[in-house]
Specification:
Blueprint: H1 3-23, H2 32-52, H3 59-103, H4 111-119, E1 128-138, H5 150-165, E2 170-174, E3 178-184, H6 191-208, E4 212-218, H7 228-245, E5 251-253, H8 260-263, H9 270-290, H10 294-303, H11 307-314, H12 318-332, H13 339-356
Parallel strand pairs: 4-5
Antiparallel strand pairs: 1-3, 1-4, 2-3
Helix pairs in contact: 1-2, 1-3, 9-13, 10-12, 11-12
């Protein structure tokens, strides 16, 4: 047997040994397909050793052996990639579900939760900032989970979650139409530092994942695990309120929402719709049917200390504002001089901003 043929045989045997070693890896223990591939490799090795005893081997036979070897290698490589992808997906799902249960208050941080965190290899910071990355669009359009490209959208989101979790001091999980995120914090970190971190996250993700639009909501205070769900919901509310009231800012802090944070959970209820209709419904209809703008005037009247200031801000004559005030009172059947009436009308206007975002 020539030296060249001996060398080729030896290379084939060494590659077969590598295949067998990979197939017997612990992560594939009990995997029927990997066992099957290992059996094939052993049979091929046996046949190859038998052929080595031959004094001659033709070039065509050697080429055939190489083709079989390459095909076997491709099959094993592809299967390993699929297995690794499935394992990563399962791991992501378990982490997501665990953190989601905690964020929504379905589970508390007791000894069992800490054990689960260790099993999932979650390295949770003791003190942290809580962010909610709310998806605002994909490829410049509104996010549509029922569209044909839903699978492609989900692939981008999974990649974003994985990318964030590879960053030191960050723990991220998919949460409804966004991503929950914990970021390592120091005890004396300020609101300004929280906003700076949120802005940096926004910029970095825009570069790495340009197809996904996000807005960042930030919880009101530094987080701790005894109130984990509370701070997570604050971050989510900050993003929701900010996107409705100040679209385009993209980074929103819970404290900046003021009383809006208390009104936000009520905004989309049937009771709220009926309250708005009862308080200012007639005025909405009047403006729509007559092409007037009495609703913004009403808001100015409620926000200003007197009608003279309203006139100055709207660049109108004082008598014009007095006339508009009287017309508004007639349409609504109320007087705007009473505290309770002004309070109720103000609440209705704020709720309307959530529902339709038409007042500025």
């Amino acid at each position: 047997m020539s030296d060249e043929i001996s060398r080729l045989f030896q290379e084939e045997l060494e590659q077969l040994e590598q295949f067998k070693s990979r197939c017997s890896d612990e992560q594939y223990q009990g995997n029927a397909l990997m066992v099957h591939y290992a059996d094939i490799a052993r049979i091929f090795e046996k046949n190859l050793r038998s052929m080595m005893k031959m004094t001659k081997i033709s070039d065509s036979q050697q080429l055939y052996l190489q083709e079989i070897q390459q095909e076997l290698e491709r099959e094993i490589e592809e299967r390993i990639k699929v297995e690794e992808k499935l394992a990563e997906s399962y791991k992501r799902h378990r982490r997501n579900q665990f953190l989601l249960d905690l964020a929504e208050g379905h589970r508390v941080f007791d000894d069992s939760a800490w054990n689960t965190a260790r099993q999932l290899m979650l390295y949770l910071p003791t003190i942290f900032h809580v962010f909610y990355l709310r998806f605002t669009g994909w490829c410049g359009k509104s996010l549509n989970w029922t569209a044909e490209n839903a699978a492609e959208v989900q692939t981008d989101i999974d990649a974003m979650v994985d990318n964030l979790n590879r960053c030191q001091g960050i723990v991220a999980w998919e949460w409804d139409e966004g991503i929950g995120l914990l970021h390592f914090a120091l005890p004396k970190d300020t609101k300004e530092q929280q906003l700076a971190i949120g802005t940096t996250l926004k910029k970095q993700l825009a570069v790495r994942f340009p197809r996904i639009g996000i807005a960042v909501g930030i919880a009101g205070k530094l987080g701790a695990f005894d109130r984990f769900a509370h701070y997570c919901k604050q971050a989510r509310a900050a993003a929701a309120v900010g996107c409705r009231l100040w679209p385009g800012m993209d980074v929103y802090h819970y404290q900046d929402g003021g009383a809006y944070q208390l009104l936000y959970p009520l905004a989309d209820s049937q009771d709220t719709e009926e309250f708005i209709e009862r308080m200012i419904g007639n005025l909405l209809v009047f403006d729509r049917e007559n092409g007037t703008d009495l609703l913004p005037t009403l808001e100015k009247i409620l926000q200003s200390p007197n009608l003279k200031v309203v006139a100055e801000e709207m660049y109108l004559h004082h008598k014009t504002i007095v006339s508009r005030k009287q017309r508004i009172e007639t349409i609504l059947g109320i007087s705007l001089d009473g505290f309770d009436v002004r309070f109720n009308i103000s609440i209705a206007l704020h709720l309307l901003r959530f529902r339709e975002n038409i007042l500025r």
